[in-house]
């Protein structure tokens, strides 16, 4: 029986920078699957129309990147637990007339930390910087790993408080101490893992972090990838361990690939490939 070629896409604006087509093509080649995967630029106010066009073209699924993850959540008529809690979707499955929304960002982050960087989050003190969609998308996955404490901070503290109020019940259920501290009051706190989920790295903005929060035994993790950010430079200056978000990108893609194909791809060769490029 001839294998049917499946079609997938990533939707965003901008989209030219996306590594997703290359990553998924490499996964498919390793798995011996017949598929294609394209990047689709959607006009900012036409995500719904763009998605419906792809469905009419018989696509089996799509990844969704900035700025459409909230709109993808609205588009889906079924949601995974992670998508429901984040109220954001980065992976869509098109099945008959069903549109199933998933969020693999948090799973990707945690896998990168645990499997690639050998950081066990259980009983650790974790700081999450940011209160936008990126932070919301990973928060529940961090809580699931039962850190001792998860501290939220942001330049506008009200946003952190809003997220805390939304997530408090989950934190209590998992027995995790979830709290909010202003950036300028962090210098006397100890953290094992510091995660930057802000977009400040994109425009080289200074987060206003005190050098004292970084130390040799701490991991500073920036969810952005590519060039070295101010956050990573500051952490290195204080001899902290550092990582960008390339591993997270590949791991969240691997989870999306698993959702679509029920095959778990090998991620380390792909991460190494992009690291050495």
TrEMBL record:
The alphabetical list of record keywords is: Amino-acid biosynthesis, Aromatic amino acid biosynthesis, NADP, Oxidoreductase
Span of domain Shikimate dehydrogenase substrate binding N-terminal: 10-92
* Family designation: Belongs to the shikimate dehydrogenase family.
Question: Pfam families, alphabetically?
Answer: SDH_C, Shikimate_DH, Shikimate_dh_N
Active-site residues, as the UniProt record annotates them: 69
Give the Enzyme Commission number.
1.1.1.25
- Magnesium listed as a keyword: no
Annotated Quinate/shikimate 5-dehydrogenase/glutamyl-tRNA reductase domain ranges read 116-201
Q: Domain SDH C-terminal: where?
A: 245-270
Show the InterPro entries listed in the entry.
Aminoacid_DH-like_N_sf, NAD(P)-bd_dom_sf, SDH_C, Shikimate_DH, Shikimate_DH-bd_N, Shikimate_DH_fam, Shikm_DH/Glu-tRNA_Rdtase
Top-rank lineage group of the source organism:
Bacteria
Q: What is known about its subunit structure?
A: Homodimer.
Q: Which residues bind shikimate?
A: 18-20, 65, 90, 105, 225, 252
Q: Which NCBIfam families match?
A: aroE, PRK00258.1-2
Give the record's GO CC terms.
cytosol
Q: Which CDD domains match?
A: NAD_bind_Shikimate_DH (cd01065)
Gene3D superfamilies, sorted: Leucine Dehydrogenase, chain A, domain 1, NAD(P)-binding Rossmann-like Domain
Coding gene? aroE
Does this entry carry the keyword NADP?
A: yes
Biochemical pathway: Metabolic intermediate biosynthesis; chorismate biosynthesis; chorismate from D-erythrose 4-phosphate and phosphoenolpyruvate: step 4/7
Q: What is this protein identified as?
A: Shikimate dehydrogenase (NADP(+))
Cite a single GO BP annotation.
aromatic amino acid family biosynthetic process
